[in-house]
Amino acid sequence: MRKILVTGGTVFVSKYVAEYYAGHGDEVYVLNRNTKKQPENTTLIEADRMQLGDKLKDYRFDVVLDITAYKREDISALCEALGGFGTYIMISSSAVYPETLLQPFTEEMAVGENRFWGAYGTDKIAAEQELLKRVPEAYILRPPYLYGPMNDVYREAFVFDCAMAKREFYLPREGELPLQFFHVEDLCRFMDCVLEKKPSQHIFNVGNPECVSVREWVQLCYETVGEPCRMRPIHEEINQRKYFSFYDYAYQLDVSKQAELLSDTKPLKEGLKEAYDWYRDHQQEVEKRDYMGYIDAHLKKES
Asked: Could you give the domains of the chain?
């Protein structure tokens, strides 16, 4: 039994990770402020990661899974507070790659500001750099769009809502924009590979090897709900974030290094079914945006 620290633990990725490892027999501790329901079969360390004091000094963790490091200060505060620990894995983001680079992005490419992600991406870069300075043997994972059960971000849930309401779906242009996803369970499975094999490489792009178009993704979401999908393309010069759950930004990660450790990923159709099965019973846990309101007020009038 390993003693594992998971930062966060109350929403989406950190909650899923905590319950995944607890369910596999590890002794899991979660670090958060105790403002939401805690993950099952875990031990809470109640604290703000920026005000840890001596909260962690008497613990010795075999693994630190840092899911909630968004800035340089997040890393420095946690590293200074930790007692002994073994393997450190940080979840970063594909947002660290400038959109101007040749795609697919590889781990060897220079990181830098991405105009679509702004401070989120540059803050992640600073966090990565701080971690490697303090813990040179740490591992950094850079995923694309994460999805699956417990997702509180209004992405696939928005399409599920449209399907459940039997709405026509308003599609950016012809829906040709490619999207790359990664199921949250596959993220855990890849961390399993890292913990078991301790690869010499320490920065990994992670994600499904194939992309899917917006049109295909929406169609799969409607099929998951069991409703036919009628789509209406929107070609007007409108910021699609007003009526759709992704930026108008196409990118792809090269995940060939991941494939050397993890040979398979969950099929998108299967992953979306798991996401929908969870969402039906947890709709109140998703932070919804009023895309439908904008559509009804602006796009329907122009149809």
From this structure: 3-147+182-205 (3.40.50.720), 156-181+209-252+267-302 (3.90.25.10)
